[in-house]
Amino acid sequence: MNHLLTTHDLAEVDLLNICRNAEGCDGVLKSQDLRGVPYTVLEGKVMATLFFEPSTRTRLSFESAMVRMGGQVISVAERNSTSDAKGEHFLDTIQTVAQYADVIIARTPDPISEDVKNQFRQLPCTYINAGDGKNEHPTQALLDYYTIRKYKGVMDQHKICIVGDLQNSRTINSFVEVMGRYPGNVIFTYNSVDNSKELPRNREPLAPIHHLEDEDQFNHFLSEYDVIYLNRVQRERHESDEVLCQFQLKRSHLESLKRDALVLNPGPRLKELPRDLDFDHRIKFFEQARNGMLVRMSILHHFLTHSSQSS
Ligand code: NCD
User: For residue 164, is it left (φ>0), alpha (ψ between -120 and 50) or beta?
Assistant: First the structure.
């Protein structure tokens, strides 16, 4: 695995190795805090970040991860500041940046086609997909996986309820692909925007999926969920700005939830996860942000130190 374009690039063993190494990175950061020892494992490496869609967590956690391991960062946060504004083809931009960096982290507003993915696989440096339109967000799925594994130990036998903009969330798409690999999981989906039931699947999950029609049905299973995965309405992918989220987590929901349940949200959060519920230990919103940095440290380490031996 030299490139991370889709969650399909991640076999079970990769998920586990990346999680184990992310735990190790947590230990390193904590010992650095105590002893102030610099961690220079990626010294001399250059990471380019190209974000053609807004980002706080993904871009800055990748950049922080690289800097914390002694590497350097070159960055484009504004699409219009690149030759894209002059009409350059995205592939040319990427192939150019590949001459300057050891790894490219890129976010695109449109899904990357299979044809372009195949071309990225020929690049002289590693390409990591940091979100392509409403298609995929593999490193987010990894950090969600890491967070669940940290608290639950195992990845199977969980009841997982996904609430959000099912048609338009790349995070949901990638999360379902990863958690759906375990046949003992049961996945509930509740569309907070409209009634469409279909998930944009690119691989049939092994775990059963049940669609919840309304909030009553969501409430009916509240005492059974092990994980609630809340997602915002993807306003930028709707024609009208009028799209309203139909769902908001409430104290009454938390009262019925298991004591060891997890409430996850990839961020940014909007109405679906009110800030005044942050007191609740089951809400891992900010911890996910930190876990994102640990997992991305592990991903960068994996690709930049092992890529020549991988398949
Ligand atoms: C997500 C994204 O951009 O896909 N954010 C993130 O990377 N943490 C989710 C979102 O914007 O809704």
Answer: left
At residue 131's C-alpha, the angle toward residues 293 and 311, to 5°, is 80
Q: Say how many C-beta atoms besides its own lie within 10 A of residue 54's C-beta.
A: 12
247: left (phi over 0), alpha (psi -120 to 50) or beta: beta
**pTM here?**
0.95
- Other CB atoms within a 10 A radius of the CB of residue 68 amount to 22
Asked if residue 296 has its Cβ within 6 Å of ligand 1, the reply is no
Which pLDDT belongs to residue 93?
94
Give pLDDT, residue 195: 78
Regions of the chain where pLDDT drops below 70: 1, 200-202, 241, 307-311
User: Ligand 1: which atom is nearest the Cα of residue 231?
Assistant: 12
Taking the centre of ligand 1 as the mean of its atom positions, its distance from the CA of residue 267, in whole angstroms, is 6
Indicate the top mutation candidate among 61, 107, 139, 140 to test ligand 1's pocket, ranked by most ligand atoms within 8 A of CB.
140
CA of 221 to the centre of ligand 1 (A): 27
Distance 87 CA to ligand 1 centre (A): 27
DSSP state letter for 168: T
Question: 211-262: per-residue pLDDT in tens?
Answer: 999 999 999 999 999 999 999 998 888 887 677 778 999 999 999 999 999 9
Per-residue pLDDT at 1: 54
137 lines ligand 1 (CB under 6 A): yes
Instruction: Quote the tokens at residue 177.
Output: 């692909």
59 lines ligand 1 (CB under 6 A): no
